[in-house]
UniProtKB/TrEMBL annotation:
It comes from Bosea caraganae. NCBIfam families: PNPH-PUNA-XAPA, PRK08202.1, PUNP. Its EC number is 2.4.2.1. Belongs to the PNP/MTAP phosphorylase family. The purine nucleoside phosphorylases catalyze the phosphorolytic breakdown of the N-glycosidic bond in the beta-(deoxy)ribonucleoside molecules, with the formation of the corresponding free purine bases and pentose-1-phosphate. Homotrimer. This is Purine nucleoside phosphorylase. Pathway: Purine metabolism; purine nucleoside salvage. CDD domains: PNP-EcPNPII_like. The keyword Electron transport does not apply. Signal peptide: none annotated. One of its GO terms (biological process) is nucleoside metabolic process. One of its GO terms (molecular function) is purine-nucleoside phosphorylase activity.
Amino acid sequence: MAADPDFDRAAEALIDRGVDGSIDCAIVLGTGLGRIVEDMVDPVTIPFADIPGFPTGEVSGHARALSYGTLHGKKVLIFQGRAHYYETGDPAVMRVPLGMLTAFGSPPLILTNAAGSLKPELRPGGLALITDHINLNGLNPLIGDTGDGRFVPMVDAYDPHLRGRLTRAAASSGAHLGEGVYMWFSGPSFETPAEIRMAKLLGADLVGMSTVPEVILARRYGLRVAGISIITNMGAGLLGGTPNHGETRDVAMAATTGLRRLLRAFLSEL
Ligand code: HPA
């Protein structure tokens, strides 16, 4: 694939700010999960606004930023806060942040998110490994892309090898990790109970407003990806679920401990 000048410009900005070129793992932190960064040793933090091609703006009052440093002995690049389709109307809003990872040797990419659960055994506060996804939004971040590379195969999009490593890390760390198929809803409004019943019928176990376009972009650029959902609520109408943003953020924050443990075991063994 031809090098993309946008990716090179973003990578140069990172190198100028002290990212020395080696990244063992990149991690995107979803809503309420920002405290993971506290576990890093000597992080360099770079606001998205200082990196060409990165989305700007705030999430829940915090500026988005990248943090680069050591986490459990590995060099890690953490995206604190992603940009969502619903903010801009652009499903490719994360194109440069993810594509520029190719300039750093294409490290494995762990995408985390807050999600609603459609499965009785996946309860709020728990973690679930994403095994596959459903995208019926009629949106795709590669619309308008050119060349044969846009016809990205999506079998095993959620890398089986990384999934195996995360499953083993969960077992060794004592963090419970369920599994499920994630369905992307554009948001920002939550689903109706009828939409949740439809999603269940179609085979979804988790619903959320992110991740899917990022996985498609990451696969376009040849990155290996895993997705982890922090279950913040039952889907609308299930077990009395009435999801809202405050609950999503608060439950995700409370569930960070399990994710911390899982990442510690995963990175230590990477
Ligand atoms: N729906 C969509 N997105 C979400 C949910 C949900 O129930 N919970 C957390 N993010």
